[in-house]
Design brief:
Layout (H helix, E strand, L loop, with lengths): L1 H6 L11 H23 L9 H24 L8 E6 L3 H13 L3 E7 L21 H7 L4 E4 L11 H9 L3 E4 H9 L9 H6 L7 H36 L5 E7 L5 E7 L24 H8 L7 H6 L4 E3 L6 H10 L12 E3 L1 H5 L6 H17 L2 H17 L5
Parallel strand pairs: 1-2, 1-3, 3-4, 7-8
Antiparallel strand pairs: 5-6
Helix pairs in contact: 2-3, 4-7, 5-6, 9-10
């Protein structure tokens, strides 16, 4: 139920979600939860007393969980769970932290800002700056702070009161830096506020052989199952492409994979055969005039990606991972975006964290935003996160949202 609720978006804080949308998400979750509960409790031995009643109660419990999630999302009782956050800093970094908190977490309550020793110019409301003469530890305890986000614009020259921050931590107040704040709040690694030391000495980036073996087994199982179910759709798509325009049904293009090794990705052709007749690579845009009518539909519902399942079976791709790019764009982005090459430390995927978290984009700025989600995935990838991304991909396909 936790996985299903996560995939349907119940655990995402959204200010303006209507009761109708929450009910729709609950019904979508029930489509998975009820059959799953029935299947699990049907495994109870047939001679067990009241087996049918147990199964019925389990399905009713699933429905009750969904009803409770809808109630919790629209009740005022969540105010008791508000986190009281003190932002240590008053510069542009502090302002950015406050903006992301207000946009992403309505339960967070910013109690104020505490200026660093070397911060003279403030970019936050003066009325919200705590300047009552108390040191950082006293201010945190006086205002019942649950968490301190360190967002200093300048962290050299003794501007970091480490002893006071340690005292706060010993008093039960969480202390996080700005990079950890973005990772926790937005599920991304903000490259503007991260350094190589944070990446090297922090947690994550586990690439063990056991994890790779489990991921490979899951990739083969899921790819085979999806191919077994989707082959009629793939056959119909091939026929439609052939009827609409001359040229090959499948499209093979060199992309960059694990450790920078190139491979040929397989997709259904969605563009005209002369899409790049001048030989110059171009970004695919949202309303690209090179896309055919059939191509426009299959790109919207992601059918054009289905042949990549053969890349998964061949070991060149995974079901979940950063989307593979062409060498031309990789060379360009590597020189312009810090840590871009880190995404090549795992296999590229048919779907990914950036694809379910970020809207369609085809510029350098969009690539930066998507990279921040890719870095989060590379740092935190696990079997659970893979399952969550695959479930959210289903929602993306059904709504037509997300990136390519």
């Amino acid at each position: 139920m936790f996985v299903i609720n996560s995939a349907t978006g119940f655990y995402q804080h959204v200010h303006n979600r209507s009761i109708t949308e929450s009910c729709a998400r609950a019904l979508f979750g029930l489509l998975f939860g009820l059959p799953l509960a029935y299947a699990i409790f049907s495994l109870v031995p047939s001679d067990t007393s009241h087996r049918d009643l147990l199964t019925l109660v389990a399905m009713a419990a699933v429905a009750a969980v969904m009803v409770h999630r809808v109630y919790a999302a629209h009740s005022g009782t969540q105010a008791r769970l508000r986190s009281r956050i003190l932002i240590f800093g008053t510069g542009p970094a502090a302002r950015t932290v406050a903006n992301t908190l207000r946009a992403s977490d309505p339960l967070a309550q910013i109690v104020g800002y505490y200026a660093g020793p070397n911060e003279e110019q403030h970019e936050v409301p003066a009325a919200e700056i705590i300047n009552d003469g108390a040191n950082l530890t006293e201010a945190a305890l006086r205002h019942n702070v649950d968490e301190i986000v360190v967002a200093l614009s300048e962290r050299r020259g003794g501007s970091m009161p480490l002893r006071q921050l340690l005292d706060c931590k010993l008093s039960g107040v969480r202390v996080v830096d700005i990079a950890t704040h973005f990772e926790k709040t937005l599920a991304q690694i903000n490259i503007k506020h991260v350094n190589a030391g944070w990446l090297v000495f922090g947690d994550g980036f586990s690439q063990g052989m056991a994890r790779a073996a489990v991921k490979r087994v899951c990739d083969v199982i899921f790819a085979a199952l999806i191919l077994a179910v989707s082959w009629p759709v793939m056959l119909a798509t091939a026929l439609l492409i052939r009827l609409e325009s001359r040229g090959p049904v499948l499209y093979r293009q060199e992309r960059i994979g694990l450790n920078g090794v190139p491979f040929k990705v397989i997709k259904f052709r969605s563009m005209r055969t002369d899409a790049e007749k001048d030989g110059k690579p171009r970004w695919a845009t949202k309303n690209d005039d090179r896309v055919t009518r059939v191509g426009r539909f299959i790109r919207k519902v992601r059918i054009d990606e289905l042949p990549q399942l053969f890349n998964v079976l061949g070991g060149e791709m995974s079901m979940v991972g950063p989307r593979p790019e062409r060498q031309f764009f990789v060379d360009e982005l590597t020189t312009k975006i810090p840590y871009y090459a880190v995404r090549h430390s795992v296999k590229p995927g048919v779907t990914g964290w950036a694809q379910v978290r970020y809207e369609y984009g085809s510029t350098i700025e969009d690539s930066v935003e998507k990279l921040q989600y890719d870095l989060y995935y590379v740092k935190n990838h696990s079997l659970f996160l893979d399952l969550l991304i695959m479930l959210e991909t289903v929602a993306v396909v059904l709504t037509g949202k997300g990136a390519r």
